[in-house]
Structures are given as structure tokens and as C-alpha cells.
Write a structure and sequence with these properties.
alpha/beta, Alkaline Phosphatase, subunit A, globular
Length: 397
């Protein structure tokens, strides 16, 4: 017999935020729970004068990481390797210096948030399951990393260029709707004004697989969500039907608090419907680190069968997709997850998302990348013998 949480699971929801590292957002939680692999407060990076720039609890909600830290492949390579061949994580300050040529400003890449400044994310991390080892799928930017969440591979891409995919590997959405029996899936974007580039190139001729944030909220009220939901935040400040809409993706230099409110709204919408709450697992995860400091070196991984040329990587060497990108925050939320779960000793990445969804709804499925086939899945964390009744609520502001 499967555990009750898995037996009740009918919906998997993924909310993918933008461009923040684990240490930047959750590193301070180590002081509250030593099992969490966060910051000791002694971590440093050399700046361009060779002085040691320390980590400091001085991150601000907005107007600090401007210009946007570089998170393209060559910059991430510098951040991880600092010009050498060993992943020392000692090149972040030097990389950020290249953006503005300002020594003092470059040290801000080492700043992190205290839990009191991120009450939503910190509460969810300590109330449910936080992953010590969830890494972005490649050491590069958004589009290619998000592709791993949709396809289990980026088809050899390491940059922000658009690409159109047919075979050999179907998206997780196509797998679900083509399965026998058929399953339902939807990608929810905030609104037409704030859709990301990945919507342009994903599922071109299947508008029925797309919905808006409002559609998701309405579905939660009615208790009618697809089997699989992928939610995208608001990517830019703009005027909307209800007035000014602040970007809620938490991409530097957007307002962190707007993102906190967005995460809370998704969580609370699911929790407010009792039937959905007991039958849904929500994963909150970030697509990549955004060039911001993290102390954990990315590990090697199973290659996905593609190779990016030296010209594509921009570092004078090809990339065989045999190592992961920088660590990001990831939290699994369900009333069947025991309070205070810290997932340690296992390595996860964005290919874990289609791997988990496929395993739960379809089962055996061969037509996917070697990387995804080897990826860890996470539904074994739904281990509580009874549904929890002590889960937090977030009140509307």
C-alpha cells in the first residue's frame, strides 16, 4: 500500500521563481536549524583588490542588485571556478565587478536575507520540506534552465536563444495529454503583458494548455485543477485590469516582497480548498541563481546526450552537460510532508520535475533524456501517516 499522502495525490503544482541562490534567500536558516546547509557567516569571496568580501545579512528588497548580476554561461563559469579548474565558488564578487567596475558595489553580491525579511519563504521552508541540494540544471541563464523543467533537457542550448522542439523528447505536458489514459496539464502565466519568452516557443499550437494566473485562482476556488500545473509569476511592472501590477518573479532588481505575496497567494489558494489541499503537492523552486553567491560547488551529473560547442559556451571549451548549475531554493509543500523536513544527501535538479510527474501519472516511460531518467524524484517525501492540521496560513495584506 502506498503511504496516504501518495495515495491521495491527484495534483502536482510547480511554481518557478527567478534568479536567486539558496544562500541568498535561505542561507540564514542554518542558524535556526543546523541541518540546513546554509551560511555560517564566515564565507568570503576575494574582490578585485584581493580583499575578502564577507557574506552579510544586508540584502534589500529592491534597488540593490542593479545592474542585474550576469548569469550567462561565461559569467557563471567565473563565479564557480574563479579562473581555475576546481569549483571553489570564489568568483562571484569578481564577476559582479565586471558589471559596474565598482569594488564596493561588487561586494553586495555576497549579501543575504534574514528569515524575518522573507517570512513567507522562510516559513514554508521550515514548516515543510527544504532541499539542501537542489541545483539549477546548467550553469547558465533562464530559458535553458526552464527547458529542463519542461523537457528534461535543453537540447544542447546554454543561452537565452529561442528554440522549437519536436522529437525526440516530448514536453511533460505532451506526455500527459498523449498518455493512455489521458491526463490534464496546464502552464499558467500571469497575464498577456507579462508572459516569458518560453511561452513563445513552448507548445506552439496548443493554446488549450495555457491559462492565466486568474484561471489558476478560479480553478482553486472550484477545486478543479489539472493533474499537473506549472505557474509563472509576473515578469514585469505594468498596468493591469486591477491597477498597477508589480513584477512578482523576484528577478533582480524586482521587488522581493511582491514575490513573497505571490508565493503566499498560490499556497493559500490551494490550502483554502480542503479537497485540493489534501490532494496536491506544491513545489516552489527557482530557475537559476541569477549570479548571486552560494557556497556549495555544483556536482557532476549524468550527461543528457547533447554537447554545446565552444562558440556557444563562450569559454573556449565545449560543454557536455555533465555538471549542474548553482544551487537554488526549493521547497516541497503538502499536508503530508512532516514538519521541518530537511532533504539532505540527495541531489535534485530541474529534470527532477518531469521525472517526478511522469513517474506518478504515467509510470514507465522510455522516450526521455538520459539526464531525466537518472534524476531524483521527490514524492517519497509525502510520508506523514496522517494529514497535518498545523500548517500555516498567510493573511491577505
Amino acid at each position: 500500500m502506498p503511504p496516504p499522502g501518495l495515495d491521495n495525490l491527484k495534483h502536482i503544482v510547480v511554481l518557478m521563481m527567478e534568479n536567486r541562490s539558496f544562500d541568498h534567500m535561505l542561507g540564514a536558516l542554518k542558524a535556526k536549524d543546523s541541518r540546513i546547509d546554509g551560511l555560517t557567516g564566515t564565507e568570503t569571496n576575494p574582490d578585485t583588490t584581493t580583499a575578502a568580501a564577507p557574506v552579510l545579512p544586508a540584502a534589500e528588497f529592491q534597488s540593490q542588485l542593479d545592474p542585474d548580476p550576469d548569469h550567462h554561461f561565461p559569467a557563471v563559469n567565473l563565479q564557480i571556478f574563479n579562473g581555475g579548474t576546481t569549483p571553489t565558488m570564489q568568483g562571484f564578487v569578481k564577476s559582479y565587478f565586471n558589471q559596474r567596475q565598482d569594488v564596493a558595489h561588487s561586494q553586495k553580491i555576497m549579501y543575504y536575507f534574514t528569515p524575518e525579511k522573507l517570512p513567507v519563504l522562510s516559513t514554508l521552508a521550515t514548516e515543510f520540506a527544504v532541499f539542501n541540494r537542489w541545483f539549477s540544471s546548467i550553469p547558465g541563464p533562464t530559458i535553458c534552465n526552464r527547458a529542463f523543467a519542461h523537457y528534461g533537457t535543453s537540447f544542447g542550448k546554454v543561452a537565452m536563444d529561442l528554440f522549437y522542439v519536436n522529437e525526440p523528447f516530448k514536453s511533460i505536458y505532451n506526455r500527459l495529454i498523449d498518455a493512455n489514459p489521458k491526463h490534464t496539464a496546464k502552464l499558467y502565466y500571469f497575464d498577456e503583458t507579462s508572459s516569458t519568452m518560453e511561452i513563445v516557443n513552448l507548445l506552439q499550437h496548443q493554446p488549450e494548455l495555457f491559462g492565466t494566473y486568474k484561471d489558476f485562482m478560479d480553478g482553486c476556488k472550484k477545486g478543479q485543477l489539472p493533474d499537473y500545473c506549472f505557474i509563472e509569476p509576473n515578469y514585469n511592472d505594468h498596468d493591469g485590469d486591477d491597477g498597477e501590477q508589480l513584477a512578482s518573479d523576484q528577478h533582480p532588481d524586482h521587488n522581493i516582497q511582491a514575490g513573497e505575496s505571490f508565493i503566499a497567494s498560490v499556497y493559500q489558494a490551494i490550502k483554502n480548498n480542503a479537497n485540493l489541499w489534501k490532494s496536491t503537492a506544491l513545489l516552489v523552486v527557482y530557475d537559476e541563481h541569477g549570479g548571486i553567491y552560494d557556497h556549495v560547488p555544483p556536482p557532476p551529473c549524468t550527461p543528457d546526450g547533447f554537447v554545446a560547442s565552444a562558440n556557444d559556451t563562450g569559454i573556449g571549451a565545449e560543454f557536455k552537460f555533465d555538471r549542474l548549475g548553482v544551487r537554488v531554493p526549493a521547497i516541497l509543500i503538502s499536508p503530508w510532508v512532516p514538519k521541518g523536513t530537511v532533504v539532505d544527501g540527495r541531489i535534485f535538479e530541474h529534470a527532477s520535475i518531469p521525472a517526478t510527474v511522469t513517474e506518478h501519472f504515467i509510470g514507465a516511460y522510455d522516450q526521455r533524456s538520459p539526464r531525466e531518467k537518472q534524476a531524483e524524484t521527490f514524492l517519497d517525501l509525502l510520508t506523514s501517516p496522517t494529514q497535518r492540521t498545523d500548517c500555516p496560513d498567510f493573511q491577505d495584506e
